[in-house]
Amino acid sequence: MPLTPLVYWAQRHEEIYLRVELTDAQDIDVQVHEKVLQFRGLGHGAKGQNEYDFSLEFLLPVKSEVSYRSTQRQVIITVRKEQRGWWERLTLQERKPVFLAPDFDRWQDESDAEMEIREKEEKRNKLKASRHKEEGFVSLKTAFLFVYNLVQFLGFSWIFVNMTVRLFIFGQDSLYDTFHTISDVMFFCQILAAVEVLNAAFGVVQTGVIPTLIQVVGRNFILFIIFGSLEEMHNQPVVFFVFYLWSAIEIVRYPFYMLGCFHTEWKTLTWLRYTIWIPLYPLGVIAEAVAVIQSIPMFDVTKLFSIPLPKTIGTSVSFSYVLYIYLVLMFVGLVINFRHLYKQRKRRFRTKKRKAN
Fold first, then answer.
1. Domain count, the chain
2. Cα–Cα distance between 38 and 289 in angstroms, integer?
3. Do 103 and 154 belong to one domain?
4. 94 and 187 within one domain
5. CATH number for the domain including 59?
6. Of 42, 69, 116, 279, whose CB neighbour count within 10 A is largest?
7. pLDDT, tens digit, for every residue of 132-151?
8. Model's pTM, two decimal places?
């Protein structure tokens, strides 16, 4: 005949927990009819490997849905009470069955259980409050990033369209007055680009600080030192090519970031964002290098930014030496940024392939 296993119990305001001491249990059958729970299973219990069963008539009604899980050492059964409350005992009969004992690992009295409920409610309330704060921060951050990218997109779009229209209307003549017609907007956009370094440094956006810093500092060096400080450079055609290449990259990059603020994607724009830099970025660096090389004789003549030496030596160090060093650093930066952009592209499209599969 079937044997009775050892059963341990505990309760909460809404649930009853039963722990059946049955090792490697198989063919488990647990049912609840009205207030009676019936258990049957094959396993290794107090009387060895046998079939074990028991039944319990609960003190108050319970729900018919019952859940259980079997481990190597025991079977855990959870029964939900029909009405929330604390029972003075488990079974209808006052005398406890001999196979039933309190589960002291989970045992709590009513006050402990109520304290546990209050703690859970406090944790839930704190979690909700923190989520509301995070949502507020996320929405504020999203609005900030969207407005920033929108302003930059409008600025570089104006530059690109203006230069394109002037090129069609005035032809080669437009190459010589680019600085006078475009520089104010370019100054604004490149000064504003310093925000991207701060965003990366403070974790507002997930990107590398060093590649962002190299790009922003490099462009501002060309714009303010090479073009802005030398009037002789204002009429050089190289200004047109530098500005045009910069704006061609940015009118793709910033709309991509704008859509990303709302977790939206346009496949064509995504492909352009991770592809157009391959020809344009090296061309931009070459144009910047040409501008630096053209400015070296001008700095030698004007002595601008020259470093004075003591009178005993009677001379000064030309700023052109700094520019020679900068040329080397420029191509080092090209390698660093190119690797960074290539890894971004590879990671992006590899992820897309995985999702497609």
1. 2
2. 85
3. no
4. no
5. 2.60.40.790
6. 42
7. 555 555 678 888 999 999 99
8. 0.61
